[in-house]
Design a protein that fits this description.
Oligomer: homodimer
Number of helices of chain A: 5
Shape of chain A: globular
Largest interface: A-B, 41 and 42 residues
Structural class of chain A: alpha/beta
Number of strands of chain A: 5
């Protein structure tokens, strides 16, 4: 989660919503791909940290399934990213802050709870929750304050 | 939908699940981006026709919102693509076949029904439904028959 948080800080420094993600080989512990939100920079509404990490990890591994891998992300994934995590067959999702407004695992569409969700990863939320949430609060306070 | 179907046929010819999508300017009727499933070719589980069409249309338009655009897709979008359609602020979704197993609009997670879904496009399903469904049935029959 430390590395995912560092990615979130990179997003913050680029004036992107500070969310970071890391995909790790669950056996070796090796980081396969790291990413942060790039929706503004790429002018792409799908450029969420999780989606970018999955795309990069699949490219690096040369396959579309990441069965022996886990994802660490600083914020509860949205429905788009939750479904992408399911498609990628990731083993576990570790996330930081809960997202009652945009989350898609414990909130909103609760993608993994749908009976039609073919692969449901194990989910561990609330890791370094306060730290991850503080960075997001700081970002939105700064934005509202007109500094961005 | 004719163009989206032609894209689905391209996917079929590449041995990809035959789904095609087209994004159209709702005022001029101009096609901005066309795409088909490329999950196998790209080894990327997120390379669904809708996501690729959104990414291309945003790149072409140079912005992350496609407010004055509609998407035509031959199959009911999954939860990942439904959420991406919402993020892209597309005005309308026209889709062909309903997808009781993997759909995320009328089935499964029903992404647009979540109170936390910030933008809900208008949805018109069942356009050329039989034609779109037949291509998918043909694909899966061929696959089961071991011809692929």
């Amino acid at each position: 989660m430390k590395h995912a948080y560092e990615e979130a800080e990179k997003a913050y420094s680029k004036e992107e919503v500070p969310v970071g993600a890391v995909i790790v080989d669950c056996h070796s512990g090796e980081i396969i791909a790291s990413s942060h939100n790039e929706m503004i920079g790429k002018k792409d509404p799908t450029a969420h940290a999780e989606l970018l990490a999955i795309q990069r990890a699949c490219l690096i591994r040369g396959k579309s399934r990441l069965e022996e891998c886990d994802i660490y992300v600083t914020l509860e994934p949205c429905p788009m990213c939750a479904q992408a995590i399911s498609f990628a067959r990731l083993r576990r999702v570790y996330f930081g802050a809960y997202d009652s407004k945009g989350g898609g695992i414990d909130h909103g569409a609760k993608v993994f709870n749908a009976p039609s969700c073919h692969h449901t990863p194990e989910v561990i939320g609330g890791i370094e929750e306060q730290k991850c949430a503080r960075l997001l609060v700081k970002f939105f306070e700064k934005k509202r304050g007109g500094s961005l």
